[in-house]
Specification:
single chain, about 270 residues, alpha/beta, 5-stranded parallel β-sheet, 3-stranded parallel β-sheet, 10 helices, 10 strands, about 15% strand, globular
Amino acid sequence: MLDKPATKPAADEQPQLDLYGRKIRSRLLLGTARYPSPEILRKAITASGAEILTVSLRRESANEKSGQRFWDLVKTLDCHIMPNTAGCRTVKEAVTTAQMAREVFETSWIKLEVIANDDTLQPDLIGLVEAARILNEDGFDVFPYTTEDLGIAEKLAEAGCRVIMPWGSPIGSGKGLNNVFGLQTLRSYFPDFPLIIDAGIGAPSHAAAAMELGYDAILLNTAVAKAGEPVRMAAAFAKAIKAGRTAYESGLMEPRDMASPSTPVAGTPFALK
């Protein structure tokens, strides 16, 4: 008997992304704060196709009933939780929060934030590297929120991080990619390293542009949660991210300074005078 032919993958099926040994299909990571209601959050998660959700230990621990409702919701979805150290301003505070989150959420994953400035929410890069080193040595899988600074990215990799998450622009600003050149440089220096844009993405077009640069995924919260229709916006981002990744993998044309006719000029008919 002849063997059955292997099932051919769908034309638009994209390779899975490996994050600390966990394979994911969706390249959209979704935050869970600031949604109008738990039901809208649930529908937005479903519409986005997200497999990884971020959650603040402080927010969920502040009110026991609120935290329980969140867990009841998450249990109905097939998603992996990545707690974060949002709001932490010192290395000690971030490390302690991460250790508490590991106990509460029963995961070694942590989105590491060490904030330096209250207005821009820019990360404390020196503290970030120190905290990352401590947590990596303690067995955490660290997802550091950083800037597009290449030197800091190299130090984070040296500290043991196997994923780096530069911002596009300040958290919640919605300004998109403020430093495209810096992000391109980071991508060039880390060609095989998972890079995830975290913060500043305000529109699906911003997300698509980041994916066209070769970034591996996008982490979103405010742009979906505070949209007029969060569920539809989540679906829009999912499509934009998929389109941007497909375009990058297909090979984008190089920009040119001069026009180039799409129709060959050789053989063009002309009239004799």
